[in-house]
Amino acid sequence: MKNISIKDLADNLKLSKATVSWILSGQGKKRGFSDATIKRVTNYAKSVNYRTNMVARSLSLGQTNIIGIIVPYIDDTFYASLIQAIEAEVYKHNYVLTICCTDENAEKEALLINTLCSQRVDGLIIATAQKSRESILQLKKDRVPFVLVDRHFSDIDTNYVTVNSEETSHQVVSHLANQGSKKIALITTSTNLSVMRERTQGYCNGLQESGLSYDERLVIEIDRPTYQSDSITQLDRLFKDIPDVDGFFFTTHYLAFEAIRYFISHDMDYHSKFHLGCFHDTLGLGILAPEMCISKIQVQEMGTRATQILTEVIEDVNRPSQCEVLKNILLK
Fold first, then answer.
1. For the whole prediction, is pTM greater than 0.85?
2. Of 61, 88, 105, which closes a domain?
């Protein structure tokens, strides 16, 4: 059986191809067509089992109604939640979402950006590896609509949605000091990322405000690709060098989980022995350590705002950049 085309629909309905295309793309009301015409077109298309030729549609209308999201890790609960929030908002705007993962690899990120652009996606949301400056600059040069999320380049004028990592880390560390901790360890990772450097600076600010000395032996950087095994090695070293460490600030949730796993395996009563603080929450952390001070990222709001900004940029790529820094929720 011959596939039914837009032309066939238009001829049979005695309407223009453009009218049928706009209505079937979900933009009938926006283009000023009456409810009766919209209903007539959609009902007829359904009755003849019409399916959109996405390639032809993108060529004729100049858009695909597809948004791409690029994140470093899909199995991370933060990014999984962020993707879910973005997908829900994308759907409200009549787009579908294509999801890609870089594994924090800048070359892979550049490849994915180029691939999605060649597939004519209408826009991109990117949690960049931050070694991809050239890719981001090229997107700006090519006038591709995009929004950076969670991470951004402070010296490149772009749309982005992030959180105030330095201020909220400062708050958490100050809280641990106020609880009585004198030797607070910083457990961090991926210090090439600006957000992690900001959290480290917040840690230093919190120590200074509380009158505590900075001790480089208390600063532990975990290797992200091997964070489970490296956490064991680094915590072994920490307790050997400073056995009386009495506080921990984790710059991300999965490091807190691994430390708790270590405490349990070593029969440490971490509930009473240490004061704990973490940047961002995740399922189960509050059960394992209900006493932990947590600076919770508003993931839903981050995903929603990033999508809303992107749809606005798709409509007008020349609009001034929108930069939003969201406040975390402090859970004590």
1. no
2. 61
CA–CA gap between residue 332 and residue 313 (Å, rounded): 38
Co-location of 253 and 291 in the same domain: yes
| C-alpha of 57 from chain center | 30
CA distance 294 to 253: 9
- In whole angstroms, what is the distance from residue 280 CA to residue 78 CA? 8
Closest CA to 206 of 267, 257, 269, 279: 279
pLDDT in tens, 273-321: 999 999 998 888 889 999 999 999 999 999 999 999 999 999 888 889 9
DSSP for 175-215 reads: HHHHHT-SSEEEEEE-TTSHHHHHHHHHHHHHHHHTTPPP-
Q: CA angle at residue 147 from 145 to 148, to 5 degrees? A: 145
Instruction: Residue 266: give the domain boundaries.
Output: 165-296
